Amino acid sequence: MRIGELSRRTGVNAHQLRYYESQGLLEPARGANGYREYDESALLRVKQIRHLLGAGLSSEDIAYLLPCATGEAPTLVGCPELLAAMRSRLRRLDDQLASLAQSRDALADYIEAAERVGGESYPPLGLTQPA
To answer: This protein's superkingdom (predicted)?
Structure first.
């Protein structure tokens, strides 16, 4: 099938499919006319990629993990390289969550302090008080 049909059947636009190819996630054959030719296994591969992207994995992570993927969801066979990559990604996410939580707490503290000092008598940011 050509890229347009793969796009239609997976709901992923052709631009994204070409990006997946550039990242080494999809490997179409080329017809004599130079067009990309995908076999039926590309349908499953695109679904796997979409699920893994939804889990917050980068295309680099996914390229590394796809050889361990089976099924649409996909199920990942627990090879040591796979587990190390997923644990590394989980640590990065945990670090990001901790940083966001710290920022949120600091902002909440500023809001609370401003309200104690009488900030409610001021207009919302970006608005002027009537004359």
So the answer is: Bacteria
For residues 25 and 116, give the distance between their C-alpha atoms in angstroms, rounded to a whole number: 54
- Cβ 26 vs Cβ 38: under 8 Å: yes
> pLDDT of the chain along its 131 residues, tens only?
999 999 999 999 999 999 999 999 999 999 899 899 999 999 999 999 999 999 888 898 888 888 888 888 888 777 777 778 778 888 998 999 999 999 999 999 999 998 888 755 555 555 555 55
Q: What is the CA radius of gyration of the chain?
A: 24
Q: Which range marks the domain in which residue 20 is found?
A: 3-119
- Phi and psi for 36 in degrees, rounded to 5? -70, 135
Q: What residue type is assigned to position 58 of the chain? A: S
pTM of the model: 0.63
In a domain, 126, yes or no: no
Q: Where are the alpha helices (DSSP H) in the chain?
A: 3-10, 14-22, 41-54, 59-65, 80-116
